[in-house]
Design a protein that fits this description.
The protein is mostly helical. It is built from 17 helices and 4 strands.
Length: about 350
């Protein structure tokens, strides 16, 4: 197992190198003036100033030299400060948010992470349970209803379902609201007296003893959680059902039944663990999708995560910000793939033996 993990860890630098090359090649599609946004906050006002910026930061240099400067940045000859350098966390300046991209990610990602944490359990566990029950009651009424549910779920546009929830729970019933927190509680969170232990509002609220803030934050996440879970349940149901049906036809399951084992033990101790192998991969990619910012859901519910920030940057043609998000999400994807590979090996020992 240790050797398997080491082999996967050795691949991480190569994958990161590949991601940076792809992103940098995208940057080359921009003009040198547009690429100067990586180093300066305001575009130069005249042509002479533009040429000075391009020469100072080597934006007219060969590809490999520009790539190296993009990775490590350069020191400003006047102030001595380092400008640029994604290895030092400098992803450029966001014109739409009027702050550095890394600061924008720092402010928005905790909200996305908070939403992800509270979405994972209902999204994965309920989806798996529906798939297992559908396979157990193959061709029964539950299976037929679950398959219909799956078809509707996979064909239902996310924004339409989200708008329906807004009309029902917010406009008609007034139970849940879009956004992150109510205004008065947001002011409390922004005060110095509210200690931000984790930067996750729900957890910090509990650590500060503010149950009211915790409940308010959860109520604002109910509709996004339902939206994300419902769309994912359909996928998890189909994958789990298919894998479970295939596993239940295996000879070792027939043997376990022939030995007189209780049907519950046959299903949950013998069949289900082996049927979870493809589900682990699906769960890994689903979590990556959540951490990368669920753009449509965050936009519909006015949720201040990195998905809605990326959408705003794209609408305003803020390419530097969009590519900065791409680098960050690429890093998340690589780490998540590593974790998924390890979990895959835990579930199926044949993977690490191969």
């Amino acid at each position: 197992m240790t050797t398997f993990i080491i082999r996967r860890l050795l691949l991480v630098p190569l994958l990161l190198f590949g991601v940076t090359i792809i992103i940098f090649m995208m940057l080359q599609l921009l003009s040198p003036v547009e690429r100067s946004a990586l180093y300066v906050r305001d575009f130069p006002k005249n042509e002479k100033a533009v040429d000075g910026i391009i020469r100072r930061y080597g934006l007219d240099k060969p590809f490999y030299e520009q790539y190296w400067r993009w990775l490590v940045g350069i020191k400003d000859p006047v102030s001595g400060e380092r400008n640029g350098g994604i290895l030092f966390g400098d992803l450029g300046y966001s014109r739409t948010a009027s702050q550095p991209v890394n600061e924008l990610i720092k402010n928005r990602f905790p909200n996305t992470l908070d939403l992800t944490i509270w979405t994972i359990a209902p999204m994965i566990l309920v989806g798996i349970w529906l798939g297992v029950q559908s396979a157990i009651h193959h061709n029964g009424w539950f299976d037929q209803a679950a398959r219909m549910f799956s078809i509707i779920g996979t064909s239902f546009p996310t924004f339409v379902f989200g708008l329906m929830l807004l009309m029902f729970f917010y406009a008609n019933l007034g139970w849940f609201s879009p956004g992150r927190l109510t205004d008065d509680l947001m002011q409390v969170v922004n005060k110095p007296t509210f200690i931000k232990y984790t930067s996750l509002i729900t957890f910090d609220a509990l650590l500060n003893g503010r149950v009211d803030i915790f409940l308010d934050a959860i109520s604002h996440m109910v509709m996004p959680i339902i939206t994300l879970s419902y769309i994912s349940w359909a996928t998890f149901l189909r994958v789990t059902r298919s894998s479970m049906l295939e596993t239940l036809r295996m000879e070792y399951v027939t043997t376990a039944r022939a030995k007189g084992l209780p049907e519950r033990d046959v299903i949950y101790k013998h069949a289900q663990p082996n049927a979870m192998i493809p589900v682990v991969t699906l769960a890994g990619f689903s979590v990556v999708g959540l951490l990368g910012g669920v753009t449509i859901t965050e936009t519909v519910f006015n949720y201040p995560g990195i998905g809605s920030a990326a959408a705003r940057a794209a609408v305003n043609l803020d390419v530097v910000t969009v590519l900065g998000f791409a680098i960050f999400i690429g890093f998340i994807l690589i780490v998540a793939n590593l974790v998924t590979d390890v979990l895959y090996a835990v579930v199926d020992p044949r993977v690490r033996l191969s």
